[in-house]
From TrEMBL:
This is Antibiotic biosynthesis monooxygenase. It comes from Acinetobacter rongchengensis. InterPro entries: ABM_dom, Dimeric_a/b-barrel. Residues 1-75 form the ABM domain. Keywords: Monooxygenase, Oxidoreductase. GO terms for molecular function: monooxygenase activity. The keyword Cell division does not apply.
């Protein structure tokens, strides 16, 4: 299992619009091959910061399949106007179970 963690820095004042658009399009993750679960969390100290955690079966399915779909491109285009800067994305694996 691979855990993707993407940090979104949202333009201040656009948080609610970002959340609304994200939730409107969240079926992209529910229906994605290899996506086991996901969650979007908002920063408390910095409410313009969000972390999207996605649990993938493997990295190849995420990178080589999901990120090349038309659905992902559509989702990214819809998210881009809310971004204050580039999404910081990292991948992790569990070391302690």
């Amino acid at each position: 299992m691979v855990i993707e963690q993407a940090l979104f820095h949202i333009i201040d004042g656009q948080q609610m619009a970002f959340e609304k658009k994200f939730y409107e399009l969240s079926d992209i993750f529910r229906n994605a091959q290899g996506c086991e679960k996901f969650k979007l969390i908002r920063g408390i100290e910095n409410p313009q910061n969000y972390v999207l955690q996605i649990y993938w079966t493997d990295l190849a399915t995420h990178i080589d399949v999901f990120m090349k779909t038309d659905e992902f491109r559509h989702w990214f285009i819809a998210m881009k106007p809310f971004l204050a800067r580039k999404i910081d994305m990292q991948h992790y694996e569990s070391t302690l179970v």
